[in-house]
Amino acid sequence: MSTPKSARSDGALLACALLAYSHTFSHLYGVQAVMMSRSPAQEESDMSREIAVWHSEVWLDALVILGQPSPFEKWPTSDQFPSSIASSSVHVIRLRALAHGIFVRMPRLIVYLKDLRTPARSPGYSTVSTVEVLTLLARECLAIEDTIVENALLHRVHVNRTMDGRVAAVIPFSFTFNTLADFDAAIYYWQARLLILRVCWHIGDRCSSFATDYLCREGLRTVQNILMSWQYGIRAAAVCGMFRLFHALPALWGAMNDFGNPSKVSLPVLQSWLLQPANSFYEAVIGDVTPEVLKQAADVYIGGETSKDFMEPFEELTEP
């Protein structure tokens, strides 16, 4: 870091990223500072692109809970900078880039939605202007999709009858992905889509800005895709699969409450089935995950209140 050039290097970016992951959240702003110091004309490496994609999701929870916009939203997003580190597949690269485009916008979007749900009482506060800004950004996020690429990836997926009788009662058919990278990109993309679909759904509670039939239909389809991927994530993808599924669980949980239950079993039975592997995997790290905790986590992503327990791990993440 002895020269301005070295302070903008990929090495400096990687160092800040590792510190943010392994030490304190505050180093996230070091990642931002390195990114923002670079010239717009500088061509980004695959590594720098991958760091931005990874951090946009990893820090989503913290930024949403603290009510802060993403530090990456001014950096090139979405398909402007797909990374090929995780996979050379064009389908994987495209879906991950699109999901990133949603993730970097989501914290600001939820700030606006929370303002709408709990309007300020200060002079000059305008609910109308909040709705306009919120709706505009939500429409921008909702348009970040690619059904052609999604369908192309799904055509590479094998659909098999679920062999385990206990699981088959919940999910009669399951997906088998060709590669772990396909699975990871699909869940990553579907999680992002559920987050924005839910936000638009709850904006619709306050104004007629979105076609609720489309939101519900798309939400149910996406929920079904994640449920059919569950067994593959647990058995074939092991640790990596559980990490991806657990990260998507609050979005999935909230979507099932908003859009409905595509399974033939009752919602409590389905939710209990989803929680069993999550609790067996994470119990030693974070303790028991209850339906009440997941409900609150899901509500945070639509501007709900955040409890002290949720806030405590992220209190040091404050912008310098």
Net shape? globular
Counting structural domains, the number is 1
Taking the sheet with the most strands, its summary is: 2 strands, antiparallel
- Averaging pLDDT over every residue, what do you get? 79
N to C succession of SSEs:
HHHHHHHHEHEHHHHHH
Radius of gyration: 20 Å
Provide an overview of this structure.
The protein is mainly α and 320 residues long. It has one domain. The protein has helices at 4-7, 10-22, 28-37, 46-58, 60-66, 90-117, 127-142, 147-154, 165-168, 180-203, 212-235, 238-259, 267-286, 291-300, 308-311, and strands at residues 158-161, 173-176. The protein has a two-stranded antiparallel ribbon. The longest helix has 28 residues, at 90-117. The two termini are 20 Å apart. Residues 316-320 have low confidence and may be disordered.
